[in-house]
Each structure stands twice: as structure tokens, then as C-alpha cells.
Write a structure and sequence with these properties.
By secondary structure, the chain is of the alpha/beta class. It has helices at 10-17, 23-36, 51-60, 64-75, 88-96, 102-113, 136-145, 153-164; strands at 4-8, 42-47, 79-82, 117-119, 149-151.
């Protein structure tokens, strides 16, 4: 039975499976993806309109590992589809905080509607582990106002360890 619903941002997938990886983040990102596959009560959250899947495909469509992982998730019914549209007020509030990329807003909407958990190393979310050029206004809003658990790859790896240990 699925009890955990997680949005995994494209940059985590790319650093885990892509041909161009950031060595600083690669280890945690690979751990997150491959360990996530072992946690049977976890589902990957995607939007109904396939905006998120299209972004994954644009960045990783040729990766054999990516293709196999998605086939396995589909086979195991571990993909959870939800609404990827934000309420107008939330969209406006995020835009005021310079969080305006439509794909990023779709990821937030999906998390808001299922699981309230995002793992990302994107500076737009304010989650880069090194905190360089991070959007802390958006980070604070997403966490404090929307109530979404927003983790970088370091934090996400620790959460995955707890899930593997049965602590969450």
C-alpha cells in the first residue's frame, strides 16, 4: 500500500542518471533514485498533463536506466497522477517571489495536491546544498505557507534512509 508520495525534481534525476552529472551532487542523487525504487510504499508524483514527465523525457529520454525505472514504476503502480495546476493566488504569490517557471510551478502544484514532499537541488526552490544564488523567498513560502516538505539532495537522502529503515 502506498503511504508516501514524493515529487522528485528533474535535477535529481539528471544528476543520478544523466550523461552530464554534477559530481558534487551525483552520489546523493543516485542514492535517492535507486533507493526510492526499493521502498515499495513510495510513489512518484506526476501531473495529469504530463508536464513533469515531458521535462524528464527532454533531459533523460535516451537514458536506458531512466526508461527501465519508469517501466518498473508503472508496472508496480507506483506513479501517482494529480492536478499540476496551482490556484491563481498561489501562482501570483510565487511569481512575486521570482518563482515563475511554469514547469517548476507544476512540480509545486503536484506536491501540494499529493504528498507535500519535493526533493530538489534547484536554486529556484532555494534548495541547493551550497546555497549559492538560492531563492530563499520562494523556499520560505513553499515550506511555511504551502506546508510542503522541501528538501535538497542531502536532506532527501537522509529521509530515504529513514524510509528504508522503516522510521517514517
Amino acid at each position: 500500500m502506498i503511504t508516501n508520495y514524493i515529487v522528485i525534481d528533474t535535477n535529481i534525476w539528471v544528476n543520478a542518471l544523466g550523461t552530464v552529472k554534477n559530481p558534487e551532487y551525483m552520489m546523493n542523487c543516485s542514492f535517492i533514485i535507486y533507493s526510492f525504487m526499493q521502498i515499495r510504499n513510495c510513489a512518484l508524483v506526476l501531473d495529469y498533463d504530463n508536464v513533469m514527465k515531458a521535462e524528464y523525457n527532454d533531459n533523460l529520454g535516451k537514458s536506458r536506466d531512466y526508461q527501465q525505472i519508469f517501466l518498473q514504476l508503472e508496472f508496480e503502480s507506483r506513479i501517482h497522477k494529480t492536478n499540476g495546476k496551482l490556484p491563481i493566488k498561489t501562482e501570483n504569490d510565487l511569481n512575486k517571489r521570482h518563482f515563475h517557471e511554469p514547469e517548476d510551478q507544476t512540480f509545486v502544484a503536484a506536491a501540494l495536491n499529493a504528498g507535500k514532499h519535493i526533493i530538489s537541488d534547484d536554486s529556484d526552490y532555494g534548495t541547493r546544498p551550497d546555497k549559492k544564488k538560492c531563492n530563499q523567498e520562494a523556499n520560505k513560502y513553499i515550506k511555511d505557507v504551502l506546508g510542503i516538505k522541501l528538501e535538497n539532495s542531502d536532506e532527501g537522502a537522509k529521509t530515504i534512509i529513514q524510509m528504508l529503515s522503516g522510521l517514517t
